[in-house]
UniProtKB/TrEMBL annotation:
One of its GO terms (molecular function) is nucleotide binding. Keywords: Oxidoreductase. This is 1,5-anhydro-D-fructose reductase (1,5-anhydro-D-mannitol-forming). InterPro entries: Gfo/Idh/MocA-like_OxRdtase_N, Gfo/Idh/MocA_oxidoreduct, GFO_IDH_MocA-like_dom, NAD(P)-bd_dom_sf. Belongs to the Gfo/Idh/MocA family. Gene3D superfamilies: Dihydrodipicolinate Reductase, domain 2, NAD(P)-binding Rossmann-like Domain.
Length: 333
């Protein structure tokens, strides 16, 4: 399948082009940029045959079967809707949109057109998270009581653009990282956060947007979840802990783009380190996407997963803004 890249982005060049090309029979045919100069330079640098500045021109190419959307967040909705109208399968970056209503429209458009729609939530594709999910599902922790997510990192210098100063482009740490943590917790627990309470601040980087947030989520089963995301913590490290009646699981360095980190489990017999598969996260997601296009199974994270992670993030943002507990509104999904 030939792919069109919508957005001359960092994530496309650092991860996705390589991951697409690593799939047998998959190539990158074109890139869309709002700047002819940047688009051509991106195409040349990455060996892509065509660069366009007009989305309709890219979508009119019949040989392009799927598009990967990785523009700034405010553009995802209109670009995905145009792609569905043109009959292209869509792998879209998170957050899917700036509102849950828009995400719902995207889900409906894909369904009505019979097209595959996936969200690029890479963490659930990681060997570490697949292993954690399996341990929980096998009941090795007993009855799960609580989850703690540590995702306070240092935003790399080269990404300190719209994320830290442009609310209209979907900037802020909640849109950037809380969505990933919401998806990861949903993946592990198999249920959707019900109510959230949150506080957010700017702690040195955010200009008009929050760069740090802490929140507590109530799950329908009663499991408590605590989540911390930040752009300003150079040495905190990332991780997730899952605590149950029969054991506790500590995963360190696993909230990342690479197959890194360690998982240990402590129970009545002591502490053991767990092994897991260290495949490429984005390649794993693409494989599932391509299988879904071929009519087998579903993407690793589909459009509804993206809608739900966005709904949690929107509730966290609202709770922080209004200083009260907020029920997550999944718009009936
Ligand atoms: P970038 O800032 O690198 O790219 C976003 C847009 O910014 C591009 O589409 C491009 O516009 C424009 N742009 C890029 N470089 C320049 C430049 N030098 N000067 C001016 N404009 C420029 O964003 P990211 O790659 O970090 O993120 C893109 C999307 O991917 C976001 O939605 C983000 O949330 C998501 N993301 C997801 C990750 C994941 O693991 N799932 C990880 C990182 C990001 P144009 O296309 O018009 O040229």
């Amino acid at each position: 399948m030939k792919w069109g890249l919508v957005g001359a982005s960092t994530i496309a060049s650092e991860h996705m082009i390589g991951a697409i090309r690593a799939q047998a029979g998959h190539t990158v045919e074109a890139v869309l940029s709002s700047s002819a100069e940047r688009g051509q330079a991106f195409a040349t640098r990455n060996g892509i045959p065509h660069a366009f500045t007009d989305l309709e021109t890219l979508l009119a190419r019949p040989e392009i079967g799927a598009v990967y959307i990785s523009t700034t967040n405010e553009k995802h909705f209109s670009q995905a809707m145009a792609a569905f109208a043109a009959g292209k399968h869509v792998l879209c970056e998170k957050p899917l949109a700036l509102s849950v209503d828009d995400a719902a429209q995207m889900v409906e458009a894909a369904r009505n057109a019979g097209l595959v729609f996936a969200t690029n939530h890479h963490l659930r594709c990681a060997g570490a998270h697949l292993a954690i999910r399996q341990i929980i599902a096998e009941g090795r922790l007993g009855h799960v009581l609580s989850v703690r997510v540590f995702h306070a990192v240092s935003l790399p210098e080269h990404l300190r653009g719209w994320r830290i100063d442009n609310r209209d482009a979907g900037g802020g740490v909640i849109a950037d990282i809380t969505v990933h943590d919401a998806d990861t917790v949903r993946f592990h627990l198999g249920e959707d956060p019900k109510t959230v309470v949150a506080q957010a601040v700017s702690s040195g980087l955010g200009e008009g947007v929050e760069d740090s947030v802490m929140s507590v989520w109530t799950m329908p089963s009663g499991i408590m979840v605590q989540s911390h995301e930040s752009f300003t913590h150079p040495y905190a490290g990332s991780g997730i802990e899952v605590h149950g009646t029969e054991g506790s699981l500590f995963a360190q360095g696993v909230m990342t783009q690479r197959p890194t980190g360690t998982i240990t489990m402590t129970d009545k017999d002591g502490t053991v380190q767990l092994n897991y598969d260290r495949h490429d996260l984005y390649g794993y997601g693409l494989k599932a996407f391509n299988r879904a296009v071929a009519g087998h199974g579903r993407p690793a994270a589909d459009g509804v997963d993206g809608l739900k992670s966005l709904a949690v993030a929107m509730a966290v943002a609202r709770s922080a803004r209004e200083g009260r507990a907020v029920d997550v509104d999944y718009k009936g999904y």
